[in-house]
Amino acid sequence: MLQVKNIVKYYGKICAVNNLSFEVKDGEIFGLLGENGAGKTTTFRIILGLLDADSGSVSLNDKKIDYSITDKIGYVTEDRSLLTKLTVKEQLIYYGVLKGLTEKEVLSKIDNLLKEFDILDYKNRKIKELSKGNQQKIQFISSIINDPILLILDEPFTGLDPINVELFKKYIRKLQKRGCSIIFSSHQMEHIEEFCEKMVILVKGKSILEGYIKDIKKEYRKHNIFIKGDISIDDIKKIKGVLEIDKKEDEYVVKIEDYDVVDKVFKKISNKSISKFVVEEATLNEIFIDKVGELKCQANSGI
């Protein structure tokens, strides 16, 4: 289990990480979210032992993270860190040996991993000759060649088409079942909702929202009603608790402040020709935009 306790990191007078705490259990996928510059990369570097926190602590399985432990950590960076003049085989040997494996151990793993990601034919091709998507596969394989017990994924699906995204998802689930602790960071909130049970949202290095995603969505209270049919938008707008109505293709999305408004909307359209009336919780994307936007407005107004 990874434990991050009250870590603080300054760059000069700028606080990049502000008293951040969270834990990731074995076999758990944890979401670390935030805008660019929110402090995610600094947090990752502290976890990896590349930076020292000014205060606070990080431990993995109750041990302080140092070079005796980092060989059991994998990291997929947002920007590719591949040696493009090497072949795929040379690249994987290089990273595997850096992670404490012997060349023989790496060679025993390569074919199975390349086959798993459908790129076995590229083993002797140079990295620079591969497509962006296939380079991302090599980046991912490089990060798991050491069978990590902790894996940090920073925008892992960059450059992938939908078929290969599914391939990555399948392997991430496999790692989870093996007990690997995973930190997942992405600007694509649907991936966070799909993978993560818990999350933290950072703004300027400080946690502004954290906990189980299901609880966060429940406490947020706002819901969306998806309606198809002949309705009067003006009539629905007059209902207390209706926040907004959007038209998307052949349906309306009615945003309401809490579930109690659902019955009021339904009664208003019950005598209409309706083919769809579905109530859903607000998406994580909506919650992120609302919470981060609210904080920015407060900062700009001096609150």
Written overview of the protein:
The strands form three sheets. The protein has a six-stranded mixed beta sheet with strand order 6-7-8-3-9-10. It has a four-stranded antiparallel beta sheet with strand order 2-1-4-5, with helices on one face. It is globular and about 75 Å long. Helix 2 (88-98) crosses helix 3 and helix 2 (88-98) packs parallel to helix 4. Helix content is 36%, strand content 30%. The model has no long low-confidence stretch (mean pLDDT 92). It has two domains: 2-215, Rossmann fold (3-Layer(aba) Sandwich); 217-301, YebC, transcriptional regulation domain (Alpha-Beta Plaits). The longest helix has 18 residues, at 284-301. The chain has 303 residues and is an alpha/beta fold. It is built from ten helices and 14 strands. Strand 1 (2-11) and strand 2 (14-24) form a beta hairpin. The two termini are 38 Å apart.
Number of DSSP helical runs? 10
N-to-C order of helices and strands: EEEHEEEHHHEHEHEEHEHEEHEH
**Radius of gyration over alpha carbons?**
23 Å
The portion of residues forming beta strands comes to 25-35%
In CATH, the topology of the largest domain is named Rossmann fold
- The top-level CATH class of the largest domain is Alpha Beta
| Count of discrete structural domains | 2
What is the first-to-last residue Cα distance? 38 Å
Average pLDDT for all residues: 92
Detail the poorly predicted runs.
none
Identify the CATH homologous superfamily of the largest domain.
P-loop containing nucleotide triphosphate hydrolases
Number of strands: 14
Q: What is the molecular shape? A: globular
Numbering strands along the chain, what is their spatial order in the largest sheet? 6-7-8-3-9-10
Structural class: alpha/beta
State the CATH architecture of the largest domain: 3-Layer(aba) Sandwich
- Helical residue percent band: 25-40%
Sketch the major β-sheet: 6 strands, mixed
